[in-house]
Design brief:
Residues 46-93 are annotated as: Disordered. By secondary structure, the chain is mainly alpha-helical. Helix content is 51%, strand content 0%. Helix 2 packs parallel to helix 3.
Length: 93
């Protein structure tokens, strides 16, 4: 069975120590900061930077993600979530 975007987001959340969400929703700033931390990308947490800035940091740390600055203004797409999830899975092993 193929994984949905929601499934992938939840797998990523769990991989970085966050909780699964029942409803369909994008990443919160806290979740993005946890992903940044898991990828060794330093991010301020008080206050959190804008989501686009954290997404850009994540993109810069994952080889197969487009680090075009314009792509940071939008949420991760399914293929990007699959790449991110695989990267986090590989780093946890």
């Amino acid at each position: 069975m193929t994984r949905t975007v929601d499934d992938l987001r939840n797998e990523i959340r769990v991989a970085v120590g966050r909780y699964e969400r029942i409803e369909s929703t994008g990443f919160t700033k806290e979740s993005l900061a946890a992903i940044c931390d898991a990828l060794d990308h330093d991010v301020e947490t008080n206050p959190f930077p804008p989501k686009a800035e954290m997404r850009a940091g994540i993109r810069s740390k994952v080889d197969d993600l487009d680090d075009d600055p314009d792509s940071a203004d939008r949420p991760f797409r399914k293929a990007e979530l699959e790449t991110l999830e695989a990267t986090l899975r590989d780093e946890s092993q």
